[in-house]
Amino acid sequence: MGDSDSESTTTDSDSSSELDVGSKRFNPLKALYSAKLKVPVATARLHDNVSVLESKQNTLGGFAEPFDEARLKQIRAAKSSNKLKAVPANIAPQRRFLPEQGPIKYVKPTRHCKNILTKLENGYEGPLASMLTWMKERRRVRVYIRKQKGIRGHVTGVIELFDKHWNMAVSDVCETWTRRKYRYSENSQHPDSRVNPSDCSDRLRQLGIVLPETKVRSEGKKNVIITRKLPQLLIQGVQVVLVTLEPSEGTQPSSSK
User: Fold this and answer.
1) Which GO terms describe its biological process (predicted)?
2) Which of 10, 89, 148, 241 could anchor a disulfide with 144, C-beta 3.0 to 4.6 Å?
3) Domain regions of the chain by residue span
4) What is the rounded CA–CA span in Å between residue 170 and residue 143?
């Protein structure tokens, strides 16, 4: 009898130690199914798992800090307010896409465009090839300009650009042309319908138009030769008669048209 009583006492002590939370022999599985378990703190808060408790205590500053639900809410509210950004009322919210979720950008294939620059790069044949050489070498040329009947004059300068229709842009221009003197000019109007010429220099000055200075010299009895210098000039191909290098003394100019 004595041995059986001692064994039952030992068994009861072992089972009570397994249900004691502070004991080293605490058995959590047995405590879950036992009706004799006594909770040490009856007012303790319930958590879903140990990870939730650990997260809350770390937010408060560690397990050394007392658990305070109100202080925990204040800390979380302060962190969330720092993350929120003020969005203006007039701006609608937009969806955020990852780079691979965004719309596909359509890149229009570039077409080969033909223009005056590509034509000059490809080069010309015949007389235009000589003009291209003079343009690249920056040599001065002389362009003879026609009028309705005959040659009006010529233009000397450096070719900047030209096309196959002989339209050209010339820089550092010196233009020379010939005209009849006013007293010998051809005028088929009736003398009573003619209007006397007036000086419009003031009007042009108000409009901001500055005319180049011209030099006039007499040639014979009925003609005058007029010369003026321009920074640049555009010549239409229909007015071009001949394009040559600017002749110098003792050289024979070569023509391109």
Assistant:
1) mRNA 3'-end processing by stem-loop binding and cleavage
2) 241
3) 41-80, 122-183+204-245
4) 10
